[in-house]
Design a protein that fits this description.
about 170 residues, alpha+beta, 2 domains, 4-stranded mixed beta sheet, 3 helices, 4 strands, about 50% helix, rod-shaped, disordered C terminus
Length: about 170
Amino acid sequence: MSKAKQRSTERQVIIDAVYAGHRAKRRKRNVLIYGGFALLLAAIITAVTIVVVGGIQQNNALAEAAKKPIAGVRTFSKLTRQHVDTPVTYPQHPGVGGDHSSSWTNCGVYVKSVDEQRAVHSLEHERSSNDGPDNDGPDAEGVRIAVGGAEAGGAGSGATGVQAGQC
């Protein structure tokens, strides 16, 4: 073999070695890049799965808790539902049902008494009422914020407190 041919062959071996080194570096870089993306994707999928499964478990736990009876809840049966214009005396305070006014109490937070017969009408329409001794205290302020209501004063006899519901 001639010297020129031998140098050409040696050069080609060196070039092939350099290209092989470049290809190895490229493969290593690709493994790191695509492997990193795969690892990141696996972490995201794992995190989403944990959140979703946790949410489902929490919803199931809440559903089970909702099936249990609530301590202290009383049921009143055989209550009338007539609209009347005469005063009504209720056997319990606040009134939970029975004959009542033909108009309801407007939604809001009341720190003064509201007409109990109007409050009973509100209950008929699934509006809730809270009658407590401290309706102008810190708890009432929290309810005002929760229902987005401003302070309102109602005059009348009977219940005092918070009126909220389908406003």
